Amino acid sequence: MDKTDEHIAKIEEHIEALQVRMDKTDEHIAKIEEHMDKTWEILKDLKRSDTQLRSIMGSFTNRSGKWIENTILGVYKTALKNHNITINKIRKAYITDTEGVILKGKRFETDMVEDNNFINLFEIKNFADEGAIEQLSIRQKILESKHRDSKKIRLFIVSNFITDKYLDVAREEGITVISGNIVKEDYAEL
After folding, report:
1. How far is Cα 127 from Cα 157, in angstroms, rounded to an integer?
2. Which of 23, 26, 95, 181 has the highest local Cβ count within 10 Å?
3. Sign of the CA dihedral with 57 first, then 158, 67, and 105 last
């Protein structure tokens, strides 16, 4: 056997070794694909479960939301009276953005009391956060576009809990906060 034959034999050995490795790699890839298929099925089941849970919770919160709001208002009835607000006068209302302040034609639900001097807007929450402040700000801007110079708009957050951060933000925005508990929030700005 000459050197060429030896090289060919070694190359054939390497090819066989590579073929064995490729076969093992193919087996591993097949197992990975099988696991991925199972993972996708689990994810699909989780998504279905999440959708069902959201539907159940949504219907529960839609039905119970009004009662929860009434309970929260009842708890803070005296504090609201100090601002000349009678809780049985607070009504659900819709504000339509006719001017295009936010989105022309969009309707926003709100809780409000209107009298001769003021339009009082409320966000009633168990836990007030940035969303409550944003919702009041949007409704205020739309009402200001409709009632220029006619009535002063007062904003209220009535909640069981609010973080110290959002309490400060609300006060800076001129929102009166009536809350039973101020939660110390440890956070870092990024």
Report:
1. 10
2. 95
3. negative
Separation CA 24–CA 77 (nearest Å): 73
Look up residue 59 and give its amino acid: S
pTM of the complete model: 0.63
Instruction: Give the tens place of pLDDT for each residue, 14-73.
Output: 888 888 898 898 899 889 999 998 989 888 888 877 777 766 665 555 556 677 887 888
Looking up tokens 């708009």 gives 153
Name the 3-class secondary structure at 156.
strand
The 8-class DSSP code of residue 101 comes to: S
> What is the average pLDDT across 182-186?
81
**Per-position b or e across 12-37, b if 16+ CB within 10 A of its CB:** eeeeeeeeeeeeeeeeeeeeeeeeee
Q: What is the CATH number of the domain that holds 175?
A: 3.40.1350.10
- Look-up: residue for tokens 């944003």? 134
**Distances from the Cα of 37 to the Cα of 4, 30, 44, angstroms:** 48, 10, 11
Coil/strand/helix, residue 92: strand
Domain encompassing residue 23: 1-64
